[in-house]
Design a protein that fits this description.
Elements lengths: L1 E11 L2 E7 L8 E2 L11 H13 L2 E17 L2 E17 L8 E7 L12 H9 L3 E9 L2 E10 L4
Parallel strand pairs: 1-5, 4-7
Antiparallel strand pairs: 1-2, 2-3, 2-6, 4-5, 7-8
The structure holds the ligand Nc1[nH]c(=O)nc2c1ncn2[C@H]1C[C@H](O)[C@@H](COP(=O)(O)OP(=O)(O)OP(=O)(O)O)O1.
Length: about 160
């Protein structure tokens, strides 16, 4: 299975909004808002929809911060590949609220709970929170991180 997905980090000054996922892939972990892109949607449309569904806010300015590939292997075979577009937004409408899917919580940029997040996040999220763009490829075996590569992308305006 190959799927196209999104992640969004709302930023307010030195604080970042993370969600505690209550179900689905990554349940019990903190992450950005996001999910799968549905047929007919652009990744931007999908991430706006997910923000509305998961925490009741509408981002009004998105900044693209990179592309991540997550490959999951099971018994040496590729089980799934996830292409994830990453965005940040400093402007949105509404107040973050809890839903069936997610509980939102603000964290200081210097105090992100990496020990309660996906193993790869500490390898690329600091770069994104520093205002830069990344490409990363992460290979998991049974959802344990085995190999990775992370590139800093050049800023092209
Ligand atoms: N290794 C990883 N590190 C990370 O930070 N986020 C990851 C990740 N692997 C997947 N994700 C994120 C990307 C995307 O936002 C989300 C995908 O989760 P789901 O499949 O639960 O999405 P949906 O909310 O669309 O699910 P359903 O609608 O329930 O199918 O998980």
């Amino acid at each position: 299975m190959i799927s196209l997905e999104t992640l969004l980090y709302l930023i307010q000054g030195e604080r970042v909004l993370l969600i505690l996922k209550k179900r689905g892939l990554g349940k019990g972990l903190f992450n950005g808002v996001g999910g799968k892109v549905k047929p007919g949607e652009t990744p931007e449309q999908a991430v706006v929809r997910e923000a509305e569904e998961e925490i009741g806010v509408k981002p009004i300015q998105l900044s693209w911060r990179g592309l991540l590939e997550f490959w999951n292997l099971e018994n040496g075979q590729v089980e799934s590949i996830h292409y994830v577009h990453v965005y940040v937004s400093e402007k949105y409408v509404g107040e973050p609220r809890e839903s069936d899917e997610a509980a939102p919580l603000w964290f200081e940029k210097g105090n992100i709970p990496y020990d309660r997040m996906w193993e790869d996040d500490r390898l690329w999220l600091p770069v994104v929170l520093d205002g830069k763009r990344v490409y990363g490829k992460f290979e998991f075996e049974d959802w344990k991180l085995r190999k990775w590569i992370v590139y800093l992308l050049q800023q092209t305006g």
